[in-house]
Amino acid sequence: MKRFLSFFLLISSFNLMSHEFNPAHLIIDQSNDFQNTYVATWMYPVKNIGKRADVIFPDICNLKSSDPFVQGKYIIEKITLECNETIKGKFIEIINLSVLTDALVTINFKEDTFEGLINVQRNKIEIPLVEQYYPTAYLYLGVGHLFDGLDHILFIFGLLFCISGLVNIIKTITAFTIAHSITLGLSVFNIISLPQATVEALIALTIVYLALEISKSNLKLKTPWMMAFGFGLLHGLGFASALMDIGIANNQMLLSLLFFNIGIELAQIALIPIPLFFIYLSKRFNLSKHLKILASYSIGGMGFYWFIDRVIGMIL
Description:
Blueprint lengths: L1 H12 L10 E7 L6 E9 L8 E3 L4 E5 L3 E3 L2 E10 L7 E5 L7 E6 L4 E6 L5 E3 L10 H12 L1 H12 L4 H23 L7 H20 L8 H23 L6 H19 L1 H12 L3 H28 L1
Parallel strand pairs: 1-8
Antiparallel strand pairs: 1-2, 2-6, 3-7, 4-6, 5-6, 7-10, 8-9
């Protein structure tokens, strides 16, 4: 039974991909010379389901668009808006967004910055007349990044299988949070940097390592928070890579970084009860050993597949 289960999970893992976090980004900068002239940059991910989404600007503006070009993971289009009046109080709509792509909207006025998030369910936003004090759009991006990042989710789940006791769980999750917050901040401010492909491959290896720890019979890590802190530093570089790809195009760098990190933590807290619930049920019905085998082979199989896939991507 054990061999069959491991074979089935290993084979099924080859069809499982970790969804890449690549939201679209519309950046609009007000001209320094002309009050109602704006320069827009429309960044849309190259890897996308369906055709490229289109931006519908306020009808008070005349548009001059350049030819789109590819830069990194994005198709970029530059658009000049010559408007009859301010775009504050007007609407911006994005049509043909895919269900897997959100669009961050950043508008830099001379005196303040507005940010919002557009998706399939809510594809139109109103630019407020009053100043926006908090970059809450980055909070939603943080939540979306963790939920889309199956590799990060599996790492958190795997950690919980290596811990016993509520105090140890709190210490471990706190250590992971502190560690990835450190490297996230250092990366965003260009103090440290590693190639994204290398970081993603190493993150996959951390998942494989956790799977091996889970498979050890009745063994709990004595200092799980130390391992969580060390691996958290690496995962923070992964979070930073995603954030740097879309850019923080406003004058609230620290607040945007803080809200993005809070979003990650909220998503993380929301997910933690799921594995704890199954661990509790397995202990109650004397199925702990079977659950550990299931978790070890499924998490390890997916981690190993991602590692091979990402290494091949680095070579080719």
